[in-house]
Amino acid sequence: MRKILAVRLSWRDVLLGLIFLAPPPVKKVLLRLCCRAEIAPTARIGWFSAVVGRGVVLGEFSRVAPFTLIRCGGHVALDGYAEVSSFVLVYGAGSFFLGRHSYVGPQSLINADEDVRIGNLSALGPRCMVFTHGSFLPCTEGYPVRLAGVTLGDRTWVAAGVFVHPGVRIGDDVFVNSCAVVSQDIPGGYVAEGAPARALHPLARLKRQMTPARVDEVVRRVLERFATTELRRELGLEVEADGPVMYFRLRWRRYAIVHVRATVAPNAPALGDLGRRARMIVVSNGSDPRIPPVRSGLIVVDLRAMRTPVPRDPIHARLVEFMRRYYGIHLEYDAPAEASSADRTGGLDDVDELEARRNMSLLSE
Is residue 298 over pLDDT 50? Predict the structure, then answer.
C-alpha cells in the first residue's frame, strides 16, 4: 500500500514560494495584493528572493538582493536606502526592522522569533548571526531558555562573523570587532571585542579630526582608487589625469571626473569648458561658484550635502556604489528628473542591471 504523506503548508509558505519564483516586478504585485505591502516605486527585490510578513514596508531605494529569504510572522520594514545582501535568511514569529542606510551582509542569519531592530546607518557584516531564541536541551530538566529581542542602535557597525545573543542591546555609535560573541549589552560610543565581547575604549579614538584639507586629501584618494580598481582594472579603460580632472572614454563617450576641493585653486580649469568636451561628473566637497547649474547636464556628487542625482549614467552609478561599499559614503538621491536622450541611450536606470552588465560592456565593443 502506498503511503501518502500529507504536508501542511500555511498560506505564508505558499506565498513565500510564489514570490521567490516570480520575476522582480511581479513580486511587488503579489506583496501588495496578499500582504497589503507599502512598497516604494524605487524599492527592489532581486531574483530568487522573497519577503513575507504580516505587514511589509519597503522604503525608497531599499533593496533585497538575489537569493535572500525574509519570512516573519510579524512586520517587516526596510527604511529608505536599506539593503539586505545575498544569501541572507531572516525568519521567526516576530518582526524585523532595518533602518535608513543600514545594511545586512551576505550569508548572515537572523532569528526573529522576537523583534529585531537595527537603527539608522548601521550594519551587520558578512556571516553574522543574531538570535532571539536560545535553547535546545529540555527546560523541564533545568536547562536555561532565553527568548528576548535584539536591538542595534544608530551608526553601529557589527563586523564580520559576530554572534549576537538573545536580549542584547547595542547602543549608538558602537563598533563590534570581527568574530566577537555579544552576550551582554554594549553601551553607546565604544569599541567592543572578544568572547564575551566587552567595551574596550571609546569609539572617538578611532576617528581623526577632519579639516577641509584632510577631506580634500581623502576624496582625492577615493577617486584615485576608483580609477585604479573600477576604471582601469574592471573596465580596462585608459585614464588620463590632469590635476583634479580625470579623462577617459567608455565606448563612444568621453568622460571627465572633476574633484572640486574645499579650496579652489586659482589656476583650476573652467568647468563649463570641460563640460563641452566631455560628460562631466563633478565630485564636490567644497563650494565652487563656477559650477554651472544642474540644467546644463552636469552630474554633481555633493559630499557636503551628501546628495546626488538618481544614477542613470553607468559611470555615475559605479562611482556612487564604490563610495558606499568601500568608503562608507552614503548618498541620498535628488528627485528624479526626466532623462535626456543621451541618458536613455548610454545610461542605466538600475544599479542591479549595471552589476549584471559590468563584465559585458567591453565585450560589446
Answer: yes
**The pLDDT of residue 276:** 56
Flag whether pLDDT at 356 surpasses 60. no
For 90-99, 168-177, 205-214, which range has the lowest pLDDT when averaged over its residues? 205-214
Distance CA 116, CA 259 (A): 41
Long-range CB pairs of 334-343, under 8 A, 24+ apart, other chains included: 334/307, 334/308, 334/309, 334/310, 336/309, 336/310, 337/309, 339/312, 340/297, 342/279, 342/297, 343/312, 343/313
Q: In this structure, are residues 278 and 247 in contact, taking their beta carbons and an 8 Å threshold?
A: yes
Q: Where in the chain is the domain with CATH 2.160.10.10?
A: 11-205
> What is the average pLDDT score of the chain?
85
Going by pLDDT thresholds of 50, 70 and 90, the confidence category of residue 13 is: confident
∠ CA 6-8-11, nearest 5°, is: 145
Of all residues in the chain, what percent carry a pLDDT higher than 90?
Answer: 64
pTM above threshold 0.85: no
In this prediction, residue 242 carries a pLDDT of 80
So what's the architecture of 11-205 in CATH? 3 Solenoid (2.160)
